Amino acid sequence: MRILLIRDDNTGQASLSTMLACSEHVTALIECNTVKAAIELIAENQVDLLFLAIEQPLDKLTLLRSHNIVGPPIIILSEQQDDGYALRCIEAGAQDFIETDELKPSRIIRCILHVKERLKVQNQLLEHQAQLRELALVDSLTTLANRYMFDLSLANAISIAKRQQNQLALIFLDLDKFKEINDTYGHSTGDQVLQEVAARLKETVREADLLCRLGGDEFVILISEISCLDNIRHLTERIVSAFSPTFNINGKQLNLSTSVGVATFPDCAIDSVQLMKCADEAMYKAKQRGRNQVMW
Ligand code: GH3
User: Fold this and answer.
1) What's the CA-to-centroid distance between 213 and ligand 1, angstroms?
2) Residue 12 has what pLDDT?
């Protein structure tokens, strides 16, 4: 554990410094004597645990937490022998409260070990949270954003566009006769084609554009920053061209094209539902007109 000790100059706290320096659980010990210095040290260093051993620790703790809402865990060492005060420190975010009277190496080590265990559990929870977030927002086959992520992003992008009076574009793609690929070569080949489509689209759009697989053989690109509609036209041309090279899947050369519908906000629609409908209808027109083309 990398530990930061904030302490005043008096005997009890000096012995805490010695105990920490001697502990096998402490890999680094940094010391300072003001909250201001501590805030700077936390910003510049990895600090796993902070011991606060200065006058009026509750006020200092509140000050620290107001600068570092998600800062390192804090343990208070104080001369106060008042359960109510200790409780208020815990309520304000301290992990533990040690009275100077109880200051001995075994108490400090127990404290460090408890924090270590809590951090382990906390990290596991954060990992699970990240996994759940990924499951909720990412399409597992292509690793593109999924429909849920798209719906959230579109609603958000529209409210920003309304506020800033910007334009948005939706490019809606539905692969042509994709079912034939499944029927002829099997579902697993179909899956690999979908992954290759996602990879080609990723190379075609910019980082700032949101590329999603809505489901099945449908993809959508949300463009939140449009400088001019000609750029969207060029992009859709590049998208159609991205399907020109044959798809080489397990040694088979497969031909595939896509029908594309484009809709812009606020010209075609006043909300996300209308905008999607508009792009869908444009795509449907492209299908009706013979596929492998872009319609607005
Ligand atoms: P059209 O040009 O008229 O759109 O023809 P299509 O064959 O692409 O149309 P349709 O929407 O009927 O076919 C889409 C196919 O996509 C049908 C479905 O079995 C397949 N599909 C949907 N999800 C997946 C998937 O995750 N993997 C694979 N391999 N196929 C999928």
Assistant:
1) 13
2) 60
Ligand 1 nearest-atom number relative to CA 291: 2
The residues carrying an active-site annotation are: 217
| Pocket of ligand 1, beta carbon within 6 A | 141, 174-179, 182, 187, 190-191, 194, 216-217, 287, 291
DSSP state of 138: B
Mutual angle of helices 187-204 and 178-185, in 10-degree steps? 140
- The residue-averaged pLDDT of 133-160 equals 94
User: Residue 69 carries which DSSP code?
Assistant: T
- The interface pTM score, or ipTM, of the predicted complex is 0.98
Note the pLDDT tens digit of each residue in 78-124: 988 889 999 999 999 999 999 988 888 898 888 889 888 988 898 89
Q: What is the C-alpha to C-alpha distance for residues 194 and 200, in angstroms, rounded to an integer?
A: 10
Quick one: average pLDDT of 156-161? 94
The beta strands (E) that lie in 182-291 are given as 210-215, 218-223, 247-249, 252-254, 258-265
The average pLDDT across 154-166 equals: 94
Quote the pTM value. 0.71
Grouping H, G, I as helix, E, B as strand and the rest as coil, residue 211 is strand
